[in-house]
Design brief:
Structural class: alpha/beta
Radius of gyration: 22 Å
Number of domains: 2
CATH topology of the largest domain: Rossmann fold
Order of helices and strands: HEHEHEHHEEHEHHHEEHEHEEHHEHEEHE
Strand content: 15-25%
CATH class of the largest domain: Alpha Beta
Distance between the termini: 27 Å
Number of helices: 15
CATH superfamily of the largest domain: LarA, N-terminal domain
Helix content: 25-40%
Length: 424
Protein backbone atom coordinates (compact mmCIF):
# COMPACT_ATOMS: atom_id res chain seq x y z
CA UNK A 1 0.00 0.00 0.00
CA UNK A 2 3.05 2.28 -0.13
CA UNK A 3 2.09 3.64 -3.55
CA UNK A 4 -1.41 4.52 -2.32
CA UNK A 5 -0.01 6.09 0.81
CA UNK A 6 2.32 8.25 -1.27
CA UNK A 7 -0.49 9.18 -3.68
CA UNK A 8 -2.85 10.29 -0.90
CA UNK A 9 -0.36 11.80 1.53
CA UNK A 10 -0.55 15.41 0.45
CA UNK A 11 -4.33 15.67 0.08
CA UNK A 12 -5.79 18.24 2.47
CA UNK A 13 -9.17 17.82 4.16
CA UNK A 14 -11.75 20.57 4.70
CA UNK A 15 -12.29 21.92 8.20
CA UNK A 16 -15.67 21.04 9.67
CA UNK A 17 -18.07 22.34 12.29
CA UNK A 18 -20.72 20.61 14.36
CA UNK A 19 -24.15 21.24 12.84
CA UNK A 20 -27.51 20.61 14.48
CA UNK A 21 -30.34 19.46 12.21
CA UNK A 22 -33.98 19.88 13.22
CA UNK A 23 -36.70 17.29 12.67
CA UNK A 24 -40.17 16.59 13.95
CA UNK A 25 -40.01 16.13 17.72
CA UNK A 26 -43.41 14.45 18.05
CA UNK A 27 -42.97 11.94 20.86
CA UNK A 28 -44.93 9.63 23.17
CA UNK A 29 -43.87 10.13 26.78
CA UNK A 30 -45.34 6.94 28.28
CA UNK A 31 -44.86 4.19 25.72
CA UNK A 32 -45.90 1.34 28.02
CA UNK A 33 -49.19 3.06 28.76
CA UNK A 34 -49.84 3.75 25.07
CA UNK A 35 -49.29 0.08 24.26
CA UNK A 36 -51.52 -1.11 27.11
CA UNK A 37 -54.35 1.26 26.16
CA UNK A 38 -54.11 0.30 22.50
CA UNK A 39 -54.21 -3.40 23.30
CA UNK A 40 -57.12 -2.94 25.68
CA UNK A 41 -59.11 -1.26 22.89
CA UNK A 42 -58.11 -3.30 19.84
CA UNK A 43 -56.99 -6.77 20.83
CA UNK A 44 -59.49 -9.65 20.80
CA UNK A 45 -60.37 -11.53 23.93
CA UNK A 46 -57.41 -13.56 25.13
CA UNK A 47 -58.39 -16.87 26.68
CA UNK A 48 -56.89 -17.46 30.13
CA UNK A 49 -54.29 -20.20 30.06
CA UNK A 50 -53.62 -19.77 26.34
CA UNK A 51 -50.13 -19.29 24.93
CA UNK A 52 -49.57 -16.09 22.92
CA UNK A 53 -46.55 -15.55 20.67
CA UNK A 54 -44.98 -12.08 20.46
CA UNK A 55 -42.73 -11.36 17.47
CA UNK A 56 -39.29 -9.88 18.19
CA UNK A 57 -37.26 -8.58 15.26
CA UNK A 58 -33.60 -7.68 14.78
CA UNK A 59 -33.77 -3.89 14.50
CA UNK A 60 -32.76 -1.40 17.15
CA UNK A 61 -36.27 -0.09 17.78
CA UNK A 62 -36.61 2.73 20.30
CA UNK A 63 -37.62 1.53 23.78
CA UNK A 64 -37.58 -2.05 22.52
CA UNK A 65 -37.58 -3.67 25.96
CA UNK A 66 -40.40 -1.40 27.14
CA UNK A 67 -42.48 -2.30 24.08
CA UNK A 68 -42.01 -6.06 24.33
CA UNK A 69 -42.56 -6.07 28.09
CA UNK A 70 -45.72 -3.98 27.78
CA UNK A 71 -47.19 -6.52 25.35
CA UNK A 72 -46.10 -9.46 27.53
CA UNK A 73 -47.54 -7.82 30.65
CA UNK A 74 -50.86 -7.27 28.89
CA UNK A 75 -51.01 -10.93 27.90
CA UNK A 76 -50.29 -11.91 31.51
CA UNK A 77 -53.01 -9.56 32.76
CA UNK A 78 -55.49 -11.66 30.78
CA UNK A 79 -54.32 -14.82 32.50
CA UNK A 80 -52.45 -16.05 29.42
CA UNK A 81 -48.82 -17.00 28.84
CA UNK A 82 -46.63 -14.85 26.57
CA UNK A 83 -43.73 -16.37 24.64
CA UNK A 84 -41.16 -14.45 22.63
CA UNK A 85 -40.44 -15.58 19.06
CA UNK A 86 -37.28 -14.26 17.39
CA UNK A 87 -38.64 -13.06 14.03
CA UNK A 88 -35.74 -11.93 11.91
CA UNK A 89 -35.51 -14.11 8.81
CA UNK A 90 -31.89 -15.14 8.31
CA UNK A 91 -30.28 -12.69 10.74
CA UNK A 92 -28.12 -13.93 13.59
CA UNK A 93 -26.30 -16.20 11.19
CA UNK A 94 -29.58 -18.02 10.44
CA UNK A 95 -29.26 -20.00 13.68
CA UNK A 96 -31.55 -20.29 16.69
CA UNK A 97 -28.72 -19.41 19.07
CA UNK A 98 -27.62 -16.48 16.93
CA UNK A 99 -31.10 -14.98 16.96
CA UNK A 100 -31.31 -15.23 20.75
CA UNK A 101 -27.98 -13.41 20.80
CA UNK A 102 -29.34 -10.61 18.61
CA UNK A 103 -32.23 -10.03 21.02
CA UNK A 104 -29.88 -10.09 23.99
CA UNK A 105 -27.89 -7.23 22.50
CA UNK A 106 -31.06 -5.13 22.60
CA UNK A 107 -31.75 -6.12 26.21
CA UNK A 108 -34.60 -8.45 25.25
CA UNK A 109 -34.09 -11.52 27.43
CA UNK A 110 -36.31 -13.92 29.35
CA UNK A 111 -35.33 -12.09 32.55
CA UNK A 112 -35.97 -8.54 31.30
CA UNK A 113 -39.36 -9.38 29.77
CA UNK A 114 -40.52 -12.11 32.13
CA UNK A 115 -41.39 -14.51 29.31
CA UNK A 116 -39.59 -17.46 27.71
CA UNK A 117 -37.87 -17.16 24.34
CA UNK A 118 -38.67 -19.97 21.90
CA UNK A 119 -35.99 -19.78 19.21
CA UNK A 120 -35.92 -22.26 16.36
CA UNK A 121 -35.35 -22.15 12.61
CA UNK A 122 -37.99 -24.85 12.09
CA UNK A 123 -40.96 -23.77 9.98
CA UNK A 124 -44.24 -25.16 8.67
CA UNK A 125 -45.85 -24.39 5.33
CA UNK A 126 -49.24 -22.68 5.57
CA UNK A 127 -49.98 -21.95 1.92
CA UNK A 128 -48.69 -21.06 -1.53
CA UNK A 129 -48.95 -17.93 -3.67
CA UNK A 130 -50.33 -17.88 -7.21
CA UNK A 131 -46.73 -17.72 -8.44
CA UNK A 132 -45.92 -20.96 -6.70
CA UNK A 133 -44.01 -19.51 -3.74
CA UNK A 134 -44.56 -21.59 -0.59
CA UNK A 135 -45.49 -19.59 2.52
CA UNK A 136 -43.69 -20.64 5.69
CA UNK A 137 -44.11 -19.62 9.31
CA UNK A 138 -42.15 -20.27 12.49
CA UNK A 139 -43.29 -23.62 13.90
CA UNK A 140 -43.34 -22.42 17.51
CA UNK A 141 -45.48 -19.42 16.60
CA UNK A 142 -47.85 -21.57 14.58
CA UNK A 143 -48.36 -23.90 17.54
CA UNK A 144 -49.26 -21.03 19.87
CA UNK A 145 -52.91 -20.13 20.46
CA UNK A 146 -52.41 -16.66 19.02
CA UNK A 147 -49.79 -14.27 17.62
CA UNK A 148 -49.26 -10.59 18.37
CA UNK A 149 -47.17 -8.88 15.70
CA UNK A 150 -44.76 -6.22 16.94
CA UNK A 151 -42.65 -4.08 14.63
CA UNK A 152 -41.70 -0.56 13.62
CA UNK A 153 -43.18 0.83 10.40
CA UNK A 154 -40.69 2.69 8.19
CA UNK A 155 -39.58 3.04 4.56
CA UNK A 156 -37.56 0.05 3.37
CA UNK A 157 -34.00 0.44 2.16
CA UNK A 158 -34.30 -1.90 -0.84
CA UNK A 159 -37.70 -1.52 -2.50
CA UNK A 160 -40.79 0.67 -2.74
CA UNK A 161 -44.29 -0.65 -2.22
CA UNK A 162 -47.63 -0.32 -0.45
CA UNK A 163 -46.07 -2.20 2.48
CA UNK A 164 -42.41 -1.89 3.32
CA UNK A 165 -40.90 -2.41 6.78
CA UNK A 166 -43.70 -3.15 9.21
CA UNK A 167 -46.25 -5.73 10.26
CA UNK A 168 -46.80 -7.37 6.86
CA UNK A 169 -43.05 -7.70 6.38
CA UNK A 170 -42.81 -9.27 9.83
CA UNK A 171 -45.14 -12.01 8.59
CA UNK A 172 -43.63 -12.47 5.15
CA UNK A 173 -39.99 -12.36 6.17
CA UNK A 174 -39.29 -12.05 9.89
CA UNK A 175 -41.62 -14.73 11.23
CA UNK A 176 -40.98 -16.86 8.14
CA UNK A 177 -37.42 -17.49 9.38
CA UNK A 178 -34.58 -18.25 6.97
CA UNK A 179 -36.58 -20.72 4.85
CA UNK A 180 -39.57 -18.44 4.30
CA UNK A 181 -37.46 -15.31 4.02
CA UNK A 182 -35.51 -16.96 1.21
CA UNK A 183 -38.71 -17.83 -0.63
CA UNK A 184 -40.17 -14.33 -0.34
CA UNK A 185 -36.93 -12.90 -1.74
CA UNK A 186 -36.64 -15.58 -4.42
CA UNK A 187 -38.04 -13.48 -7.27
CA UNK A 188 -35.71 -10.61 -6.35
CA UNK A 189 -36.44 -7.15 -4.96
CA UNK A 190 -38.09 -6.04 -8.21
CA UNK A 191 -41.00 -8.31 -7.22
CA UNK A 192 -40.72 -7.89 -3.45
CA UNK A 193 -43.60 -5.46 -3.03
CA UNK A 194 -45.98 -7.82 -4.83
CA UNK A 195 -44.67 -10.93 -3.07
CA UNK A 196 -44.95 -9.31 0.34
CA UNK A 197 -48.63 -8.56 -0.15
CA UNK A 198 -49.41 -12.07 -1.32
CA UNK A 199 -47.38 -13.87 1.34
CA UNK A 200 -48.62 -11.54 4.08
CA UNK A 201 -52.25 -11.95 3.03
CA UNK A 202 -51.98 -15.74 3.09
CA UNK A 203 -50.34 -15.59 6.52
CA UNK A 204 -53.03 -13.29 7.94
CA UNK A 205 -55.80 -15.50 6.55
CA UNK A 206 -54.26 -18.72 7.87
CA UNK A 207 -52.95 -17.72 11.29
CA UNK A 208 -54.62 -16.66 14.50
CA UNK A 209 -53.22 -13.13 14.47
CA UNK A 210 -54.53 -11.41 17.58
CA UNK A 211 -53.46 -7.89 16.52
CA UNK A 212 -50.47 -5.87 15.41
CA UNK A 213 -48.52 -3.36 17.49
CA UNK A 214 -46.82 -0.83 15.20
CA UNK A 215 -44.55 2.04 16.14
CA UNK A 216 -43.44 5.05 14.11
CA UNK A 217 -40.31 6.95 15.11
CA UNK A 218 -39.62 10.65 14.76
CA UNK A 219 -36.55 12.20 13.16
CA UNK A 220 -34.57 11.68 16.35
CA UNK A 221 -35.24 7.93 16.48
CA UNK A 222 -37.77 8.23 19.30
CA UNK A 223 -41.25 6.71 19.30
CA UNK A 224 -43.68 9.28 17.93
CA UNK A 225 -46.72 7.03 17.54
CA UNK A 226 -47.97 3.66 18.73
CA UNK A 227 -50.79 1.96 16.84
CA UNK A 228 -52.52 -1.27 17.75
CA UNK A 229 -54.29 -2.66 14.69
CA UNK A 230 -56.93 -5.34 14.71
CA UNK A 231 -56.28 -8.32 12.47
CA UNK A 232 -58.83 -7.00 9.98
CA UNK A 233 -57.12 -3.57 9.92
CA UNK A 234 -53.52 -4.59 9.24
CA UNK A 235 -53.74 -4.72 5.44
CA UNK A 236 -55.89 -1.60 5.15
CA UNK A 237 -54.27 0.70 7.72
CA UNK A 238 -50.57 -0.11 7.51
CA UNK A 239 -50.11 1.78 4.18
CA UNK A 240 -51.27 4.98 5.89
CA UNK A 241 -48.79 4.39 8.71
CA UNK A 242 -46.04 4.06 6.11
CA UNK A 243 -46.97 7.47 4.66
CA UNK A 244 -46.75 8.99 8.14
CA UNK A 245 -43.36 7.33 8.67
CA UNK A 246 -42.11 8.95 5.44
CA UNK A 247 -43.31 12.35 6.71
CA UNK A 248 -41.44 11.95 10.01
CA UNK A 249 -38.27 10.51 8.52
CA UNK A 250 -35.06 12.51 9.04
CA UNK A 251 -32.71 13.53 6.23
CA UNK A 252 -29.44 15.29 5.57
CA UNK A 253 -30.44 18.73 4.33
CA UNK A 254 -28.38 18.69 1.14
CA UNK A 255 -29.47 17.60 -2.31
CA UNK A 256 -25.88 16.77 -3.24
CA UNK A 257 -22.82 15.89 -1.16
CA UNK A 258 -19.34 15.67 -2.61
CA UNK A 259 -18.20 13.52 0.31
CA UNK A 260 -20.24 11.63 2.90
CA UNK A 261 -18.43 9.81 5.70
CA UNK A 262 -20.41 7.30 7.78
CA UNK A 263 -18.63 6.44 11.02
CA UNK A 264 -20.35 3.07 11.46
CA UNK A 265 -22.86 0.72 9.90
CA UNK A 266 -24.63 -2.28 11.40
CA UNK A 267 -27.64 -4.56 11.20
CA UNK A 268 -29.21 -2.97 14.29
CA UNK A 269 -29.05 0.37 12.46
CA UNK A 270 -30.58 -0.78 9.19
CA UNK A 271 -31.11 -3.96 7.22
CA UNK A 272 -28.57 -2.65 4.74
CA UNK A 273 -26.21 -1.50 7.47
CA UNK A 274 -27.04 2.12 6.73
CA UNK A 275 -30.33 3.59 5.60
CA UNK A 276 -30.15 3.94 1.83
CA UNK A 277 -32.84 6.62 1.93
CA UNK A 278 -30.49 8.80 4.01
CA UNK A 279 -27.31 8.30 1.97
CA UNK A 280 -29.06 8.38 -1.42
CA UNK A 281 -27.43 5.17 -2.67
CA UNK A 282 -29.43 2.03 -3.40
CA UNK A 283 -28.30 -1.52 -4.04
CA UNK A 284 -31.41 -2.64 -5.92
CA UNK A 285 -33.25 -1.35 -8.98
CA UNK A 286 -36.47 -1.69 -6.99
CA UNK A 287 -35.49 1.34 -4.90
CA UNK A 288 -34.05 3.53 -7.65
CA UNK A 289 -35.69 6.92 -7.93
CA UNK A 290 -36.39 7.08 -4.20
CA UNK A 291 -35.92 10.37 -2.33
CA UNK A 292 -32.41 11.04 -1.14
CA UNK A 293 -29.30 13.08 -1.86
CA UNK A 294 -26.81 12.52 -4.65
CA UNK A 295 -23.68 11.32 -2.86
CA UNK A 296 -20.58 11.60 -5.05
CA UNK A 297 -18.13 9.71 -2.83
CA UNK A 298 -18.95 7.62 0.23
CA UNK A 299 -16.56 6.38 2.89
CA UNK A 300 -17.56 4.03 5.73
CA UNK A 301 -15.21 3.65 8.69
CA UNK A 302 -16.46 0.83 10.93
CA UNK A 303 -19.05 -1.88 11.56
CA UNK A 304 -20.74 -2.02 14.97
CA UNK A 305 -19.98 -4.74 17.49
CA UNK A 306 -23.70 -5.54 17.67
CA UNK A 307 -23.65 -6.48 13.99
CA UNK A 308 -21.36 -9.43 14.78
CA UNK A 309 -19.31 -8.86 11.65
CA UNK A 310 -22.32 -8.70 9.34
CA UNK A 311 -21.13 -5.96 7.01
CA UNK A 312 -24.11 -6.07 4.65
CA UNK A 313 -24.28 -2.63 3.03
CA UNK A 314 -20.55 -2.13 2.66
CA UNK A 315 -20.96 -2.57 -1.10
CA UNK A 316 -22.54 0.88 -1.25
CA UNK A 317 -19.33 2.51 -0.05
CA UNK A 318 -16.42 3.57 -2.22
CA UNK A 319 -13.77 3.17 0.48
CA UNK A 320 -13.32 1.46 3.86
CA UNK A 321 -10.27 1.31 6.17
CA UNK A 322 -8.38 -1.85 7.06
CA UNK A 323 -9.92 -1.92 10.58
CA UNK A 324 -13.38 -2.29 9.01
CA UNK A 325 -12.24 -5.12 6.77
CA UNK A 326 -10.68 -6.98 9.70
CA UNK A 327 -14.07 -7.09 11.48
CA UNK A 328 -16.03 -8.62 8.60
CA UNK A 329 -17.60 -12.03 9.17
CA UNK A 330 -18.05 -13.11 5.59
CA UNK A 331 -20.27 -16.06 6.52
CA UNK A 332 -22.77 -13.77 8.30
CA UNK A 333 -22.53 -11.12 5.58
CA UNK A 334 -22.87 -13.49 2.66
CA UNK A 335 -25.76 -15.57 4.04
CA UNK A 336 -27.63 -12.27 4.45
CA UNK A 337 -26.99 -11.29 0.83
CA UNK A 338 -27.58 -14.77 -0.57
CA UNK A 339 -30.94 -14.91 1.19
CA UNK A 340 -31.97 -11.47 -0.02
CA UNK A 341 -30.76 -12.33 -3.57
CA UNK A 342 -28.72 -9.12 -3.79
CA UNK A 343 -24.93 -9.66 -3.61
CA UNK A 344 -24.14 -6.04 -4.47
CA UNK A 345 -24.59 -4.94 -0.85
CA UNK A 346 -21.83 -7.28 0.33
CA UNK A 347 -19.24 -6.41 -2.30
CA UNK A 348 -15.94 -5.19 -0.90
CA UNK A 349 -15.07 -1.52 -1.50
CA UNK A 350 -11.48 -0.31 -1.93
CA UNK A 351 -9.62 -1.01 1.32
CA UNK A 352 -7.22 1.68 2.50
CA UNK A 353 -4.85 1.69 5.47
CA UNK A 354 -6.80 3.97 7.81
CA UNK A 355 -9.58 6.50 8.24
CA UNK A 356 -7.46 9.43 7.11
CA UNK A 357 -6.78 7.77 3.77
CA UNK A 358 -10.48 7.00 3.32
CA UNK A 359 -11.30 10.69 3.73
CA UNK A 360 -8.42 11.75 1.51
CA UNK A 361 -9.47 9.37 -1.25
CA UNK A 362 -13.07 10.63 -1.09
CA UNK A 363 -11.93 14.24 -1.34
CA UNK A 364 -9.48 13.44 -4.14
CA UNK A 365 -12.13 11.73 -6.27
CA UNK A 366 -15.17 13.92 -5.53
CA UNK A 367 -14.67 16.17 -8.55
CA UNK A 368 -13.83 19.45 -6.81
CA UNK A 369 -10.56 21.24 -7.59
CA UNK A 370 -10.84 23.91 -4.89
CA UNK A 371 -10.86 22.46 -1.35
CA UNK A 372 -13.13 25.27 -0.17
CA UNK A 373 -15.86 24.00 -2.50
CA UNK A 374 -15.94 20.44 -1.13
CA UNK A 375 -19.34 19.75 0.42
CA UNK A 376 -18.34 17.20 3.03
CA UNK A 377 -20.65 15.72 5.67
CA UNK A 378 -19.71 13.30 8.45
CA UNK A 379 -22.32 11.34 10.41
CA UNK A 380 -22.08 8.80 13.23
CA UNK A 381 -24.65 6.52 11.59
CA UNK A 382 -27.77 6.93 9.50
CA UNK A 383 -29.80 6.48 12.68
CA UNK A 384 -28.20 9.51 14.35
CA UNK A 385 -28.19 12.54 12.08
CA UNK A 386 -29.58 15.26 14.33
CA UNK A 387 -25.96 16.21 15.07
CA UNK A 388 -23.58 15.99 12.11
CA UNK A 389 -20.39 17.66 10.96
CA UNK A 390 -20.22 19.74 7.79
CA UNK A 391 -17.61 21.64 5.84
CA UNK A 392 -18.38 25.32 5.23
CA UNK A 393 -19.35 24.60 1.62
CA UNK A 394 -21.75 21.88 2.77
CA UNK A 395 -23.39 24.12 5.38
CA UNK A 396 -23.77 26.94 2.87
CA UNK A 397 -25.55 24.52 0.52
CA UNK A 398 -27.86 23.10 3.21
CA UNK A 399 -31.55 23.94 2.86
CA UNK A 400 -33.96 24.92 4.40
CA UNK A 401 -31.81 27.21 6.51
CA UNK A 402 -34.14 27.20 9.51
CA UNK A 403 -33.59 23.45 9.87
CA UNK A 404 -29.79 23.61 10.28
CA UNK A 405 -27.65 25.52 12.76
CA UNK A 406 -23.90 25.77 13.24
CA UNK A 407 -23.09 24.59 16.76
CA UNK A 408 -19.34 25.13 16.84
CA UNK A 409 -16.33 26.63 15.14
CA UNK A 410 -14.80 25.25 11.95
CA UNK A 411 -11.63 23.34 12.75
CA UNK A 412 -9.40 20.65 11.19
CA UNK A 413 -10.36 17.02 11.72
CA UNK A 414 -8.37 15.15 14.36
CA UNK A 415 -6.96 11.64 14.10
CA UNK A 416 -5.26 9.31 16.59
CA UNK A 417 -1.76 7.86 16.30
CA UNK A 418 -3.11 5.20 13.89
CA UNK A 419 -4.78 7.87 11.74
CA UNK A 420 -8.26 6.80 12.80
CA UNK A 421 -10.81 9.61 13.07
CA UNK A 422 -11.46 11.19 16.47
CA UNK A 423 -14.91 12.73 16.14
CA UNK A 424 -17.82 10.59 17.35
Amino acid sequence: MKACEKFLKGIELPSVAKVEQKFSSQKIEDVARAVAEGLQSNSPDIVPGSRIAITCGSRGIDQYVTLVKAVADFVKSKGANPVLIPSMGSHGGATAEGQIGVLKQFGVTEESIGAPILSSMETVQIGETDKGLPVYIDKNAKECDGIILLNRVKPHTSFRGTYESGLVKMLGIGLAKHKGCEQTHLLRFENMAENLVKVGTIAINNLNIMCGVATIENGYGKIAQVHVLKKSEILTKEPELLKQAWDLMPRIYLDEMDVLIVSKIGKEISGTGMDTNIIGRFHTKAAQGSPGPNTIKLGVLDVTDASNGNANGMGLADFIPRRFFDKIDFDYSYINSLTSTEPFSSRIPMILNNDRQVLQACVKLCGQIDLSNVRMVLIESTKNIDTVYMSKAAFNSAFPKDMVKEAGEYSPLKFDEKDNLLLF
